[in-house]
Specification:
Order of helices and strands: EEEEHEHEHHHEEEEEHEH
Strand content: 25-35%
Helix content: 25-40%
Strand order of the largest sheet: 1-2-3-4-5-6-7
Largest sheet: 7 strands, mixed
Structural class: alpha/beta
Oligomer: single chain
Shape: globular
Number of helices: 7
Length: about 240
């Protein structure tokens, strides 16, 4: 039986493209459905959440999730990745080092932000590292003339920020936490403020004026919102 995006609590953004806003940290997970593939963008904050997202994405796509793109190495975006066991995993070059070498810091950050210690322990023990690393741009064919463009746009929110462009009418850009709508963008110790506005300029050049931009947290926004946030960040960090 076919299910709709709405029945599973997902938001359809464009034909074959949607997203889910997760409870807790209002993190966004995206889904792009092609003719013979399904791409999920980010994986949630734990194995149970990741497994639920994988099941829902499979129901919506009518096929197994084949690809998983991680926008950056923060717990609320990567701790569910091991639940996508059959997917090819992509990330910006360098994200694999963070996940391999900074596991305890990731766990500590997760618990300090309210994730149950047991959930964090399970996720850290099963952490999945991207096998496919994007240093610049990578076109990902998804079938039926659909493709996604994975773009290493960082550093900015972290040293390893990956965006996903889905061409179409409208085009859709999954921004990760380079853009946030439900609160002020968070700049932690791994942020690179001097380069953040330039990373957002790259997002805008990818999508253009008519694209829909999907923040890492919050509602879908337009180019005007993204540009205003870029300027606010430039002012906040004292860069041009």
């Amino acid at each position: 039986m076919t299910v709709t995006w709405e029945e599973l609590g997902w938001e359809r953004i464009a034909a074959g493209v949607g997203r889910c806003r997760l409870p807790g940290w209002d993190c966004t997970v995206g889904l792009v459905i092609g003719g013979d593939a399904a791409l999920v963008v980010d994986a949630g904050s734990g194995l149970t959440e990741g497994a639920r997202l994988c099941t829902e994405a499979r129901a919506l796509a009518g096929r197994a999730v084949t690809h998983l793109a991680l926008t950056h190495p923060h717990f609320d975006h990567v701790f569910g990745a091991a639940a996508f066991a059959d997917a090819e995993v992509f990330g910006a070059t360098g994200v694999e080092r963070v996940l391999a070498e900074e596991r305890e810091a990731l766990r500590r950050d997760a618990v300090e932000n309210g994730l149950h210690a047991r959930v964090a322990d399970e996720a850290v023990a099963a952490l999945t590292y991207p096998r496919h690393l994007v240093s610049d741009e990578l076109a990902l064919p998804l079938g039926d003339d659909r493709q996604a463009l994975l773009v290493n746009v960082g550093p900015g929110h972290t040293a390893h920020d990956l965006a996903v462009l889905v061409p179409g009418s409208p085009a859709v850009v999954f921004c990760g936490d380079l853009v946030e709508e439900s609160g002020e963008p968070q700049a932690g110790p791994d942020a690179t403020p001097a380069h953040w506005p330039a990373a957002i300029d790259r997002l805008l050049s990818l999508g253009g004026e008519d694209a829909l931009y999907v923040p890492g947290h919050g509602a879908v926004v337009d180019a005007g919102f993204v540009r205003a946030q870029r300027d606010a960040l430039a002012t906040r960090f004292g860069v041009s």
